[in-house]
Design goal:
This protein is α/β, with parallel strands linked by helices. The protein is 39% helix and 21% strand. The chain has 20 helices and 18 strands. The protein has helices spanning 19-26, 50-55, 91-94, 104-120, 122-125, 141-149, 176-183, 203-210, 219-224, 228-231, 235-240, 274-289, 312-322, 337-349, 362-371, 387-393, 404-409, 430-446, 448-460, 466-480, and strands at 2-7, 36-43, 57-66, 69-80, 83-89, 131-135, 160-165, 173-175, 196-197, 200-202, 213-216, 245-247, 298-306, 327-335, 354-357, 374-377, 397-401, 423-425. A nine-stranded mixed beta sheet has the order 3-4-5-2-1-6-7-11-12, sandwiched between helices. A six-stranded parallel beta sheet has the order 15-14-13-16-17-18, with helices on both faces. It has a three-stranded antiparallel beta sheet with strand order 8-10-9. The N and C termini lie close together (9 Å). Bound molecules: adenosine-5'-diphosphate (ADP) and alpha-D-glucopyranose. Alpha-D-glucopyranose binds at residues 18-20, 23, 166-167, 217, 250, 382-386, 405. Alpha-D-glucopyranose (GLC) binds next to helix 1.
């Protein structure tokens, strides 16, 4: 039996701001439990739902030194679906209304504390991982501290690490002197072949340099980040580590996202019943959101963090033109006020046709995945993307830009060969996008049989974790042996 510890800043069902939480919360359940004891450690945020906080039991506490002070490290624990979750408790760092509240420097201190605490709790919880699987910049210091802790004694020697990049855009960067004061790591680590990048300290870079293997969440993104456009300044490093870098596409928790079991939606359906039943979800959603009730109109859904990563500049550019067509658009998202206000504006201007829901709601997201005919995701870059996988599962055809995981998971419709599961366009160009949306409309309105065949293929795709969990197991094996 091998021990694996996931370290992450978010994880469903406890706390989620994006797809990272979905991945960390579902993947551990899909490993071969005879071979791997996979546990997860995350911060205990004050903003977690009371329901979860009540399930946590106290294990132990002690103090560690960080940023010039002694800091309390409480350990809490909870078992869910047979997986053990540990929570690091410290109100000073993890109070507040959201996980990433505060300025960048504060977040760097918060997650430096978390990373050091992750390693410090191991002897106390009596779970010595053979491998620590780190996720994103917030845990970038884990491999670095591990290197540093090796000198403390035998215990920490030989623990392997994997750094999984869910989004290279966020790196945890601040000036070297401050980061050195916070982390209390020696000068040795603050040089260009270690944690320094462009004269600043870079936490993710530390993780990438010190991890035994580096992964990202789709094959295409693994290639893209070796180029300057997608490399976010670290393309040289990604090239240098390319022998240890691979892309493993994300899966979905097929129990959570399941059109025939979903309790959130008005009418459940399968690949055999969608023709009759899917439309009932559309009518229910139109009613709920005050859209014109029309079973025949093409409903386009968007569920997303509202950031420039997701291609909203393209949408802004053609929204007026698109709203002249026979379509309805429903948006669910929060983020950049620029995009929040843009959608509020269009919902006012095209009332009955556009619905802007500027908040976070798990329940409404499921209703949109189930009710829409198409799902728009024209990302500028997309490491993997889970929303398009959710859409495929609910027979909602994705319209995407061919980048990262979108390229790897959505096969564009080919009307001659009758293949494909969605629609895609190549260049980051608003009218190229509008053309493909209009092409999708033409199939939806004029070739209903073909449209339904695409839905069948979409719903029959398998993006459960089955395949990808196996690939992670193989990667673990390459480091730990069988
Ligand atoms: P990213 O991680 O870049 O945000 P993903 O597509 O990987 O993108 O994952 C986004 C996840 O967050 C999906 O599960 C999506 O349904 C969910 N999501 C995003 N915004 C909202 C929202 N406002 N309400 C509910 N769920 C949301
Ligand atoms: C990031 C990426 C998204 C990916 C998710 C989970 O938030 O933006 O593409 O699906 O992480 O890996």
């Amino acid at each position: 039996m091998k021990n694996i510890l996931f370290a992450s800043s978010e994880c469903v069902p406890f706390i989620k701001t994006g797809g990272l939480a979905d991945v960390v919360g579902s993947l551990p359940k899909y490993y071969n439990s005879k071979k791997y004891d996979v546990r997860v450690v995350l911060p205990k945020y004050d903003c977690m739902d009371q329901k979860w906080k009540e399930k946590m039991e106290y294990v132990e506490h002690f103090y560690i030194h960080i940023a010039g002070q002694d800091q309390y490290v409480g350990i809490l624990k909870c078992v869910l679906d047979k997986i053990i979750f540990y929570f690091i408790d410290n109100e000073y760092y993890f109070g507040g209304h959201a996980p990433y509240e505060g300025d960048p420097k504060w977040n760097i201190e918060k997650f430096a504390f978390f990373s050091k605490a992750v390693l410090s709790i191991l002897p106390v919880i009596e779970f010595r991982p053979d491998l620590i699987h780190c996720h994103d910049w917030q845990t970038g210091l884990v491999p670095v501290y591990l290197d540093n802790f090796r000198y403390l004694g035998e215990y920490y020697r030989g623990i392997k690490t994997i750094m999984t990049i869910h989004n290279l855009k966020f790196q945890g960067v601040w000036d070297t002197q401050t980061v050195q004061q916070i982390t209390e790591l020696p000068d040795y680590y603050f040089v260009p072949d270690k944690m320094e990048a462009y004269h600043d300290a870079n936490l993710l870079k530390g993780g990438i340099v010190y991890a035994d293997k580096v992964t990202t969440v789709s094959q295409t993104y693994a290639e893209e980040i070796k180029t300057p456009f997608y490399g976010e300044g670290l393309d040289g490093l990604m090239m240098a580590r390319s022998n240890d870098l691979c892309g493993i596409v994300n899966g979905l928790d097929y129990n959570e996202y399941c059109p025939f079991k979903d309790k959130n939606i008005a009418k459940r359906f399968t690949v055999d019943t969608f023709k009759r039943n899917k439309v009932l979800n559309k009518l229910a959603l139109q009613e709920e959101l005050g859209l014109e009730k029309d079973s025949k109109v093409m409903l386009i859904g968007i569920v997303s963090r509202l950031t420039d990563q997701k291609g909203f500049d393209l949408i802004e550019c053609i929204m007026d033109e698109l709203c002249q067509d026979a379509v309805q658009i429903v948006v669910l998202g929060t983020g950049d006020p620029k995009y929040e206000n843009m959608f509020r504006h269009f919902a006012w201007k095209y009332s009955g046709k556009v619905s802007a829901n500027i908040f976070y709601s798990e329940e409404l997201s499921h209703k949109i995945y189930a009710a829409s005919d198409a799902f728009l995701m024209p990302s500028l870059f997309e490491p993997c993307g889970l929303s398009q996988l959710m859409s495929l599962r609910y027979g909602t055809l994705p319209i995407v830009r061919e980048t990262g995981g979108l390229k790897d998971t959505v096969e564009p419709y080919n009307e001659y060969e009758k293949t494909g599961t969605g629609f895609s366009f190549q260049n980051y160009n608003a009218h190229e996008m509008l053309n493909i949306i209009r092409y999708a409309q033409s199939i939806f309105y004029d070739k209903k049989r073909d449209w339904n065949k695409i839905i069948e293929r979409a719903m029959q795709q398998d993006f459960s974790w089955k395949n990808s969990a196996k690939q992670y197991e193989q990667l673990y094996e390459s480091l730990l042996g069988k």
